[in-house]
Design brief:
two-stranded antiparallel sheet, globular
Length: 459
């Protein structure tokens, strides 16, 4: 690894290692003083410290992985009594988070392999993080056989370039590639996962019962969305003053689970009518997919008449596996086979796209964003649109960018998803936004929200 690194980067000047070791000891000592000095910082400095500490922490993890690779190359790990790189790292970092230790050790092993020099270089330059490197090294072998003309280093570089989007994005990219070029593999994966599903519970000494469920991706997407939809904070109102929901997120999810089971049991027993209205609608799952996947999937599932578009009898040549996948609003990618099952068995709402992935506007001139229009808003925005917020759509209100009382219309182009916190801030600071076919861009300058009918004020 040392020779490989020196071949691609200029070696440090003599004495640099000793100087950096002294700095490292000083940094460790300084960290002990930080908590006691925080009261001396202004608000801007507090934000700067948080950002710097997290960025530096990520770079420290990068260097730790490269140091591990160097130790492997020199034989340091082999000459120790450790069983491997992760165990060697654990001995050097007593008290560190085990998941981080395993990740650093595993990536260090890969960086010691000359074939992964592109990964080592990305870590050294800071253009990729260790979690992203681990994801890239795991995902590229999965998709490389499906792309026979692709170069491995180039593909690794493309995955690593998405490091800022997080390791989950890299996994989703692989799923989309597999869905496009080998959809049958996704279907087989889902079927194998379903065969291995399990639910069990254990009575705890405290009197509580712990439930553990291991579900396939398709089944988990339905359950997660239903729990997410029914676990949004619900403020209580006393004396016309709303009181914030004091339940923890875990407690809200537990309440949502019990509510779902109670309702389903009542429906099955015939003692409770089938839910309608808000309860019956929020637990449905919204899936975004292209029109051909939707049409062919529904037709093969028997949900559409077996007719061609011109009304003639359709041929029985629908593909067994459809290319492409669908994505739920919770970010889960579903294969075409799972989509067909949902189309038959679940309350699946298809969001059919127009040009440039723009949702078809199905709205009406009403005061509230409901039904198909809210569905279109959810598809476009995905989560709270306020900068930096990712609260899910089921926790959000549909906000009139130009207020209703100021002449704003209830249309897709005048709508933006906002969580309760940021909805309050937008009205408090009178903020406005620019709505595009694919998203919402907020102007955080206070006072620009229109407050009366007429043209919008200049930004």
């Amino acid at each position: 690894m040392a020779q490989l690194t020196n071949a691609t980067r200029q070696p440090a000047a003599p004495g640099t290692g000793a100087r950096l070791m002294a700095h490292l000891e000083q940094v460790a000592a300084d960290l002990q003083e930080w908590p006691g000095a925080l009261w001396q910082l202004d608000e801007a400095a507090l934000g700067a410290v948080v950002g710097s500490m997290l960025r530096i922490g990520s770079r420290f993890e990068n260097v730790a992985a490269l140091v591990t690779a160097e130790a492997l190359s020199r034989g340091t790990v082999a000459n120790s009594t450790a069983t491997g790189a992760p165990a060697w790292v654990a001995r050097q970092a007593v008290g560190a988070e085990p998941a981080v230790v395993r990740r650093v050790g595993a990536v260090g092993v890969e960086c010691a392999d000359p074939r992964n020099d592109v990964v080592a270089e990305a870590l050294a330059s800071g253009s990729a993080s260790v979690p992203a490197a681990a994801a890239a090294l795991r995902e590229v072998p999965r998709v490389l056989p499906l792309l026979p003309t692709a170069d491995r280093d180039d593909l690794l570089g493309r995955y690593l370039s998405l490091s800022d989007h997080g390791w989950r994005t890299l996994r989703q990219l692989s799923t989309r590639i597999v869905g496009e070029f080998a959809p049958e593999q996704l279907v087989r994966d889902e079927e194998r996962q379903q065969e291995c599903e399990s639910v069990f519970w254990t009575d705890l000494p405290s009197g509580l019962t712990r439930f553990v469920a291991e579900l396939s991706g398709g089944h988990a997407a339905v359950v997660k969305h239903a729990l997410q939809a029914l676990s949004a904070p619900t403020p209580e109102t006393e004396d016309d003053a709303p009181e914030r929901d004091l339940r923890t997120p875990a407690k809200r999810r537990a309440d949502a689970l019990v509510r779902l089971v109670d309702t389903a049991a009542g429906v099955l027993d015939g003692t409770t009518p089938r839910p309608v209205g808000e309860f019956g609608g929020t637990a449905k799952i919204l899936v975004t997919l292209d029109y051909n996947t939707l049409y062919e999937g529904l037709r093969s599932a028997g949900r559409l008449d077996q007719l061609s578009e011109d009304g003639s009898a359709a041929c029985e040549s629908a593909p067994t596996y459809l290319p492409g996948i669908g994505r739920t609003t919770d970010g889960d990618d579903l294969d075409a086979g799972t989509l067909r099952r949902l189309a038959c068995d679940a309350g699946l709402i298809p969001a059919v796209l127009g040009g440039d992935s723009e949702p078809l506007d199905v709205g009406r001139a009403k005061r509230l964003f409901t039904g198909g229009l809210r569905t279109a808003i959810i598809h476009r925005d995905q989560h709270c649109t306020f900068p930096g917020c990712d609260r899910p759509p089921d926790w959000c209100d549909a906000h009139h960018v130009r207020p209703w009382w100021a002449g704003g219309e209830t249309t897709l182009t005048n709508a933006a998803l906002l969580c309760a916190r940021h909805h309050t801030i937008v009205h408090r600071d009178l903020l406005t936004a620019h709505v595009t076919p694919t998203g919402v861009i907020w102007d955080l300058t206070p006072g620009l929200m229109p407050t009366r009918p007429g043209p919008s004020p200049a930004a």
